[in-house]
């Protein structure tokens, strides 16, 4: 076993950043000392086949070993996983030793069901400890997990089953939201039914929330197997640094979600480096990310990042305002949380509550509140920083990168932030704002596309699962003149080097920090028999950042009265709920006779969006039917 050496000499942000860009191999070789290696790597980076980048070639390590086993000697009896559920009123603390035991039992269960290195395991679960055990168990034995957000419904789930082809699915009877059970099993059964690929087994955690029928021969009971395998010892399988650790599906501009595929070694190092330099992580302290394991923040900063850093991690099942708006701060106080990580939407939800909750608890353990996932507006940032009196650190990244691209990296140096800006480039990311047409860097304060020069640093996606061509075509082909990774975000960089993000260049929208493809929602709405055509756009919302709004043309030319329109709108929403999940449900669906399109038939989504937000729709010389925008305006204006 190669042990980590003492890591020091970080210098200033400027030094560290410049070194990471000038000499990435040297820089990342040094960062690699932050984790344990079973076998040292021969080559820091193989970028002989751009835009693919293989980090730590020849090295062997394991994410589960780095997250759990390596802390046993020093911190075995210290908290590792803190589970708090205000939904089912439970709190449980697992020490590193207990986590180690649980993960081995879960790994033994998977092995018993035939799971081997490289096999996929789909995890469709609420925020319960067994979900973390399952993820770490996969990492331990080299199975590739694919966690699907519990808020997704059968259609979304089916497409992911079809694509990932998991040998086993781990699930539970139900989640819970606002004190009400949300059944998972019927959606799962329906998804398996829909998918042409069938998993061999389903491992069911029975929380006793909703009765369900087990499918004989396929469904296994977690508690029963747990009892059988209670003393299981499953050694870590050493994996190549370049092996795949997981697939996480994310929305893009087509209806088919992309499987973001991540490696083992690069991801472990990137997370360890980010915990140290960005998140000010300290061994033995507590990290609390309020996200969900179904999203990338959950992967990186509920499960792997904090544990790799030797921190306890809080897994919270519940709403930020239940039983009251003090719950997060109570958790901070009770578990001495040192770093809190959330999303602007959640803060905007809190802002509507009594501010007294924010001063009710002792927050002295808290060093900073990190916010990511969507633009952080100045009002929200000002309000929360005033209310809790702690630094607020915006950070910008994507499912694809797995960790922040832009941030004020307070673990290196307490650089000042700028309101409305997620900060400066993170070490390793050669970020630029490029002219959309020429791919040349924009001048300060000039709007362009936020792009990253290859090779991407460790931790970023290796490829699109099963589709290298799609990886290259989607992310690296935006500019004709050269191969650069596009984030699909508009942005500017000011004269001091701070970036500002100005929204997506594509048809992806961001609802409450959740990324949704408008095409997926359109496909779902179009499956309603009454709908001929539909356009879905993201419209600014004061709490959720954006909401989806649909404009549908019906097959029949009969004019609907208000009551009929309402009924049909409700029916359409039900279809979306059933197929994609409530998370993708549009806020409104309006009915129109014509949609704004160019003469060549391309939907003018940005013009629709502008009209919805009361902005100028821009140059309309290419529009086929100029009355179409009036219809959009008319539909949104109550009679
Ligand atoms: P996801 O892959 O779901 O994390 O979504 C990534 C997208 O969310 C980015 O491409 C941005 O459009 C947006 N985003 C994430 N973090 C921020 C941030 N701090 N500021 C502005 N937009 C953000």
Automatic annotation (TrEMBL):
It comes from Limnobacter thiooxidans. PANTHER family: ACYL-COA SYNTHETASE, ACYL-COA SYNTHETASE SHORT-CHAIN FAMILY MEMBER 3, MITOCHONDRIAL. Keywords: ATP-binding, Ligase, Nucleotide-binding. The keyword ATP-binding applies. Residues 13-67 form the Acetyl-coenzyme A synthetase N-terminal domain. This is Propionate--CoA ligase. PROSITE patterns: AMP_BINDING. Belongs to the ATP-dependent AMP-binding enzyme family. The keyword Disulfide bond does not apply. GO terms for biological process: propionate catabolic process, 2-methylcitrate cycle. InterPro entries: ACAS_N (IPR032387), AMP-bd_C (IPR025110), AMP-bd_C_sf (IPR045851), AMP-binding_CS (IPR020845), AMP-dep_synth/lig_dom (IPR000873), ANL_N_sf (IPR042099), Propion_PrpE (IPR012694). Residues 520-602 form the AMP-binding enzyme C-terminal domain. The lineage of its organism: Bacteria, Pseudomonadati, Pseudomonadota, Betaproteobacteria, Burkholderiales. Residues 69-455 form the AMP-dependent synthetase/ligase domain. GO terms for molecular function: ATP binding; propionate-CoA ligase activity.
